[in-house]
Specification:
single chain; Cyclin-like_dom; Cyclin A, domain 1; 7 helices; 57% helix; mainly alpha; globular; 120 residues
């Protein structure tokens, strides 16, 4: 995750949202089908989209992660759906954790719902 964040030249906010998304995935059984490297890359891509930093997965990110954007979209869509329901599920500990100042209030950002709507 750290290597991918560095390759993406991510700021602190993207980093916090990426870790928030990864932690949401830890308790989801259906995420076991994705390799950890893909989860890390998809979390960073989804965080960038969530914060409006970028909707593209650039060549540097592709090179360091070995994934193209199309390979990340399915995983990213699941992350967005988990983000949308983070506060209402039975396992809301991650939501409580990331709504504190220590974690930069990462939960305050709106989910990147546009990722659910279309393949672009």
């Amino acid at each position: 995750m750290r290597r991918s964040l560095k390759a993406a030249q991510s700021d602190n906010e993207v980093e916090l949202v990426s870790f928030f998304l990864i932690e949401l995935c830890l308790v989801e059984y259906e995420m076991l089908r994705f390799p950890p490297s893909m989860l890390a890359a998809a979390a960073i891509f989804t965080a960038q989209c969530t914060l409006g930093v970028s909707k593209e997965w650039n060549k540097t990110c592709e090179k360091h992660s070995s994934y193209v954007k199309d390979q990340l979209l399915e995983c990213s869509k699941l992350m967005v759906s988990f983000h949308q329901k983070a506060a209402i599920g039975k396992l809301s500990g991650v939501h409580r954790k990331y709504r504190t100042s220590k974690y930069g209030y990462a939960i305050r950002c709106e989910p990147a719902s546009f990722l659910l709507e279309a393949w672009f």
